[in-house]
Design brief:
There is one protein chain. By secondary structure, the protein is of the alpha/beta class. It has a single domain, classed as SGNH hydrolase (Rossmann fold), CATH 3.40.50.1110. The strands form three sheets. Strands 1-4-5-6-9 form a five-stranded mixed beta sheet. A two-stranded parallel sheet has the order 2-3. The protein is globular and about 75 Å long. It binds 2-acetamido-2-deoxy-beta-D-glucopyranose (4 copies). The site of one 2-acetamido-2-deoxy-beta-D-glucopyranose has 4 residues, from helix 7. GO terms for molecular function: hydrolase activity, acting on ester bonds. It comes from Durio zibethinus (Durian). This is GDSL esterase/lipase At2g23540-like. Keywords: Hydrolase, Lipid degradation, Lipid metabolism, Signal.
């Protein structure tokens, strides 16, 4: 008799601890879900560490302010957290989305999300070829297809489908490299530019992206965040090589970005009509970063033109950040960490606007609202 009693007690305890384990794994009313991050170096959290590539950030002083690694480089192209990291944190996800190529992107860790982003990657396959290796968006989505199958195994097909459609956010932050490291490349791309007008190139980009987003939809993605291309003509690299003054930006690069962004907004409208049940949120990174650059003092920065870590020219904008770079003291007073990427201080302001801001920067809903849809 006593043994039957202790058996049932043990069974109850087992059930409690099992349900605790399931909850701890992220299956908890949808308050915490997954964040799947696609994109380029703005949100790469370490995938390029596992590639033979010329685009790498796992060298100091990158990551110097990243608390989770004790200030060691992780492959993030900034001094601290990326926009993706901050958004995950604020939405209550207990760990940063693991890089797909990292050895620990297996088992329950993926229930909080996976990061597929890769420095140098773009919408077009050819983008970033000067780095030898990088993950373009086509390949990033092939990888998500693998993850999708792992979800079926982890949760069972019907729960997995529910988890992906209702509790997961898919952010796509890409396009800058298609201009900077493809269409606008000096020398390498002159032939392309002669044979293909900006309109035709942007057409190709949008057509590719339409297919790519539709593939994600076929794999059950429903909550999308589309980041537009920032003011790439204002990054320290572009300002340095074009020998601009502090308050000037490269016109052609910004024009291309703006032209692409208009088409991206149209694509948002088109896909919202075409793909039932999907929400496409447009993140206006261009205006947000432009606001930081124009009114940097208002946000507590002392410069929006000079890279904190880098070398070369007036804006330290030629040689990427590495062990031999000069580094500023006041890292949170610089909008730009290196010749291309915002500092953690700038990322914080950007991320908070996307999370809680108004339709000026994020529409039709902000990320906090998207999460609870
Ligand atoms: C789950 O939902 C119940 C009832 O709706 C609520 O009381 C509980 O706090 C929720 N748990 C979490 C982790 O959000
Ligand atoms: C995965 O590994 C990285 C690098 O070792 C570590 O920083 C991160 O916390 C790990 N994430 C999980 C969820 O285990
Ligand atoms: C890009 O490359 C991938 C992988 O090699 C391939 O599957 C895909 O068809 C290519 N896309 C285009 C548009 O060429
Ligand atoms: C996912 O992979 C399977 C093969 O395992 C393939 O048949 C399917 O077309 C892929 N789906 C997408 C959207 O790429």
């Amino acid at each position: 008799m006593a043994s039957a009693k202790s058996w049932s007690l043990a069974l109850v305890l087992l059930c409690i601890s099992l349900s605790y384990l399931v909850n701890a794994a992220g299956d908890n009313n949808g308050s915490i879900g997954a964040s799947f991050i696609f994109g380029d170096s703005l949100v790469d959290a370490g995938n390029n560490n596992y590639l033979q590539t010329l685009s790498k950030a796992n060298i100091p002083p990158n990551g110097i302010d990243f608390k989770a690694s004790g200030g060691n480089p992780t492959g993030r192209y900034t001094n601290g957290r990326t926009i993706g990291d901050i958004i995950g944190e604020e939405l209550g996800v207990p760990n940063y989305a693991v890089p797909y190529l990292a050895p620990n992107s297996t088992g329950k860790a993926i229930l909080y999300g996976v990061n597929y982003a890769s420095g140098g990657g773009g919408i077009m396959n050819a983008t970033g070829r000067i780095f030898v290796n990088r993950l373009g968006l086509d390949i990033q989505i092939d990888f998500f297809n693998n993850t999708r199958k792992q979800f079926d195994q982890l949760l069972g097909p019907s729960k997995a489908k529910d988890y992906i459609t209702r509790r997961s956010i898919f952010s796509v932050t890409i396009g800058a490299n298609d201009f900077l490291n493809n269409y606008l490349l000096p020398v390498l791309s002159i032939a392309t530019r002669i044979s293909e007008s900006p309109d035709a190139f942007i057409d190709d980009m949008i057509n590719n992206l339409r297919n790519q987003l539709t593939r994600l939809y076929q794999l059950d993605a429903r909550k999308f965040v589309l980041g537009n291309v920032g003011p790439i003509g204002c990054v320290p690299y572009q300002k340095t090589i074009n020998q601009l003054n502090e308050n000037e930006c490269v016109d052609l690069a910004n024009k291309l970005a703006t032209q692409y962004n208009v088409r991206l907004k149209d694509l948002q409208t088109e896909l919202t009509g075409k793909l039932p049940g999907a929400t496409f949120v447009y993140a206006n990174v261009y205006d947000l970063v432009m606001e930081l650059i124009t009114n940097y003092e208002k946000y507590g920065f002392t410069t929006a033109s000079k890279a904190c870590c880098g070398n070369g020219g007036q804006f330290a904008g030629i040689i990427p950040c590495g062990p031999t770079s000069s580094m500023c003291q006041d890292r949170d007073k610089h909008v730009f960490w290196d010749p291309y990427h915002p500092s953690e201080a700038a990322n914080l302001i950007i991320a908070r606007q996307l999370l809680y801001g108004s339709t000026r920067y994020i529409s039709p809903v902000n990320l906090k609202q998207l999460r609870s849809l």
